[in-house]
Amino acid sequence: MPKKEKMAKTPLSDEEQLLLFQQKLLAEEEMAKKKERLLSQFLKDKLAKEEHNSALNLNKINTQWRTVLREVKTRELHKDIEILSQTFERVVDCKDNVIKNLEEKHFLRLHLENIVEDLWRKFQDVLKNYTDATEDRKAAFETLQVKDEKSSKEIEVQMKKIQKLQDAITISKGKIMIHSRESEDENRYIRNDKELVLVQLRKLKAQRTQARAASQKNLVRLTLESNATLKALRKIVDKGEKILKLAEICRKFETEEEKVLPFYSSVLTPKEQEGIQENNLEELTEELTKVMVDYIGMENFWKRYNKVKLEQLSLQHRRAQLLDINGKLREMLKQYLDGISVSDEVLSQLNPLFIVNYQSNLPQPLSIRIAHP
Predict the structure, then answer these.
(1) Contact 229, 222 (CB under 8 A)
(2) Which residues form the signal peptide (predicted)?
(3) How far, in Å, CA of 286 to CA of 292, rounded?
């Protein structure tokens, strides 16, 4: 025992460990195969039992199902047999009735055949008697037939004539229709022309009324304009009279020079005046020249007016100069008065009494030139 324990405790080499591992694997594989065989055998046995039980159950179900089907089928067959028996009885009854009817018809047919034979014999006798009696009538019928053929030919000829007459009638009707259409067209054109003439007449009447209204309006407007023109002319006349009165009043205030030479002469030389006239003629248009011709008589008036306007402008300019001079003189007077009085305010401002190097601190007065008109 101690030797075995010592051997067991001794460590194994790699090859021995590999062999032990392979043995374990083989043992495990054997166990697994054994388990698989047992399991497969168990499953096969169980499958065989299940198949046996299923076969038994299937046989039982089939037997029960067959019994049910047999019962259902027997019921259906009983019903079919009853229906067939009823139909067979009906068919037999129908055939019996048909047989009876056929026998009755056969007897009736025999009876009718006998009657027909008797009637045929009587008909032959009557026909023979009729042919013997109607030979003359037959000959007359043949002659009538010949006459009928002739008359039919004549009727055909007459029908052709009638057809020709009908064709002529249709042609004449067509011509009549054409003439009637043409006449209707002409009448329609005439009616249209009449309507157009009536429309034009209405338009002319409307234009005449409009022209009358327009002429009436023009007459009223002309009357109003003439009245307005007369009023404007009266105003112009009044204005002219007023201007003449003012001219008479202003005549009193004219100087001797203005009385002697009322219209000033131009300061330009004749050459300068000719150059200005040429430039004005180049700039003027025909319409403006026509208008200027109507106002040639106003030239002296405009000269006087321009002279007065120039004098007015000169006086206004002179007045502005005098106002400017007056303001400057007032300013100088104020400065002078401020220079005479002594105060802090005066000393703080420009003062003519402060003289340094013979010069005052006041600005030098401007030289004043008085322009004479």
Answers:
(1) no
(2) none
(3) 10
Taking the C-alpha atoms of residue 293 and residue 189, their distance in angstroms, rounded to an integer, is: 64
pLDDT at 313: 92
pLDDT of residue 318: 93
Q: How far apart are CA 278 and CA 276, in angstroms?
A: 5
- What gap in Å lies between CA 147 and CA 140, rounded to an integer? 11
228-237: pLDDT as tens digits: 999 999 998 9
Q: Are strands 355-356 and 359-360 parallel, antiparallel or unpaired?
A: antiparallel
Assess contact for 353 and 346: CB atoms under 8 A: no
* Three-state secondary-structure class, residue 359: strand
| Strand-pair partners of 359 | 356
C-alpha 309/C-alpha 315 separation (Å) is 10
DSSP 322-343: HHHHHHHHHHHHHHHHHHHS--
Residues of the chain with pLDDT under 50: 1-8, 365-373
Q: Find residue 356's DSSP bridge partners.
A: 359
Q: Which structure tokens are listed for 108?
A: 């009736």
Tokens (6 digits) for 241 = 């009279």
| Local structure of 56: helix, strand or coil | helix
Q: Two tokens at 275?
A: 């150059």
Give the residue carrying structure tokens 């003519």: 352
Query: Is 283:320 a contact under the CB 8 Å cutoff?
Result: no
Handedness of CA 60, 65, 71, 74 (dihedral sign): negative
In this structure, which amino acid lies at residue 110? L
The helix or strand, by DSSP H or E, that contains position 355, with its residue range, turns out to be: strand 355-356
* Per-residue pLDDT tens digits for 184-194: 888 888 888 88
